[in-house]
Amino acid sequence: MKGYLKRSFVLIPLMFSVLVVMAQNDIFDKIAGALKSGKSHEVAAYFDSSVEMKLMDKSAVYSKNQAEMVLKDFFEKNPVHNFNIIHRGTSAKGARYAIGNLETSNGTFRTYLYVKDANGNLTIQQLNIENQ
């Protein structure tokens, strides 16, 4: 019985870690799908109530609705062909991030996504789209 309890104390945290990684991958897969669509409202579904955005040389903190409009304008000027995540990770403070390439009719842009847990939901806190 003691051996069973010892294994439980080891296995439960391990299983929790696997679930956290699966959730991290799942949110980025969903966001990647939204970015591939080139539809700002699909990406905005993952925005927090305010989002720090950097598009090219313009950087600001926007409300969720404002960020959606800024992204919509970017997508209209740069129709999306594809989006691929090339790296995912977690910071020391628990923020999750992904780096990807956004392929558009006007070239490829390096894209940085930062998500954090906000009231039990993983939401985009920061979105950067920069020239490569």
Reported by name, the CATH topology is Nuclear Transport Factor 2, Chain: A
How far apart are the termini? 58 Å
Give the SSE order as H and E letters: HHEEHEEEE
Total strands: the figure is: 6
Q: What's the alpha carbon Rg, rounded to whole Å?
A: 17 Å
- Overall mean pLDDT stands at 87
Question: What does this entry look like structurally?
Answer:
With 132 residues, the chain is of the alpha+beta class. It has a single domain, classed as Nuclear Transport Factor 2, Chain: A (Roll). 42% of the residues lie in helices and 44% in strands. The chain has three helices and six strands; from the N terminus they run ααββαββββ. The protein has a six-stranded mixed sheet with strand order 2-1-6-5-4-3, covered by helices on one side. Strand 4 (96-104) and strand 5 form a beta hairpin. The radius of gyration is 17 Å and the shape is globular. Mean pLDDT is 87; it is low at 14-24.
Topology:
Blueprint: H1 2-37, H2 40-44, E1 47-55, E2 58-63, H3 64-77, E3 80-90, E4 96-104, E5 107-118, E6 121-131
Parallel strand pairs: 1-6
Antiparallel strand pairs: 1-2, 3-4, 4-5, 5-6
Q: What descriptors fit this protein?
A:
132 residues; alpha+beta; single chain; Nuclear Transport Factor 2, Chain: A
Brief overview:
This protein is 42% helix and 44% strand. With 132 residues, the protein is an alpha+beta fold.
